[in-house]
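Dear colleagues,

For the upcoming journal club I promised to circulate an example of a predicted protein-ligand complex. I picked one with GDX because it came up in last month's discussion. The inputs are reproduced below in full, followed by the predicted structure.
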Amino acid sequence: MSTVVFPFKREDPEVLLGNMRAAAEHPRVGCVVAVGFDEDPCFRAISEAAPELRRRAGTEVAVLKQERLGLYRPGKGDGMNTGLRFFLEERDDDRLHFYDADLLSFDGGWITQAEEAADQGYDLVRHYFPRASTDAMITWFITRTGFALLWPRSELPRVEQPLGGELLITRPVVEQFNADPRVHAQSDWGIDTLYTFATAAYGYSMFETYVSAGKIHRLYGALTDLRTMLVECFAALQGLAGERLADHATHHIAYQGPVKEDVKRKIGYAFDDTLALLAADWTDRQSELLQAFPKAVREGMEACRRWPRVGFMD
Ligand code: GDX
Ligand code: MG
């Protein structure tokens, strides 16, 4: 059997409860756990609804407040690592799934896909999706790039969505992650980077399963909303420089299927609000660093301070 964990902070309780229900009703799932940042209104609503969900689905349901485990800002990392610890201490299931709480396109099919890949013997299964245009900016500009710079000959830069919060981890891997001080320390947004890194560091086999429905979730306002996540994901990578990976690991990526129209048309953040940022708040240091870029970028970015535009970018 499997345990499913949803880390959450200030989410819409209706959305989270719907996702918990879908997980609880899945025949492979013996326990559903929601791990909250604190006792916010969502936490209270979920706690109230849990007994009824347990009765109806005949599945264990737990609502936990995250423990203070790591060394950095208390965030999603403490939430996920609290899930790891709960699984090891309270459950004897073979597999642990994580899903973001704000998924609007989640259903039992996601669990089935991961379970079937794990049935083939993979240590870990990650979901990947067609993404809305301009969604997953940190993945593209920070994480895949950083992995490519640090370990160019490894599988890490080839992981489709290395920051995705949707994955299945088999028990021996959960034990290893829980015991690794680097993973344990990463209490903030860097946790997804650390789980992906640790998969390659220990040489676990990985299957990436394609979910054509796409990851429809709460999107952002201006790109400034992502600032903390960007800094923390960058710092997590910097902290890994010099670490070694296993010599070899099996990595299979399922073929990508068709992309649905709604995913194709959606934009990941408010473009107009973000464009204005190109003109704002330039520091002397940024101007200095700009000199290191190719001419087209340098001149294009300088012109943005008068009139923001992006046509000079490829
Ligand atoms: N327990 C707990 N504690 N949960 C948290 C916290 C926290 O401090 N902060 C966020 N969460 C939950 C949140 O409620 C949601 O369920 C999930 O973590 C992801 O957060 P969300 O705000 O939806 O992040 P976003 O921007 O959707 O990012 C996700 O996808 C990114 C990506 O794939 O590009 C998330 O998994 C990121 O780590 C990832 O970078
Ligand atoms: Mg989200």
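Two points we might discuss: The longest helix spans residues 41-57. The chain has a mean pLDDT of 94.

See you all on Thursday,
B. R.
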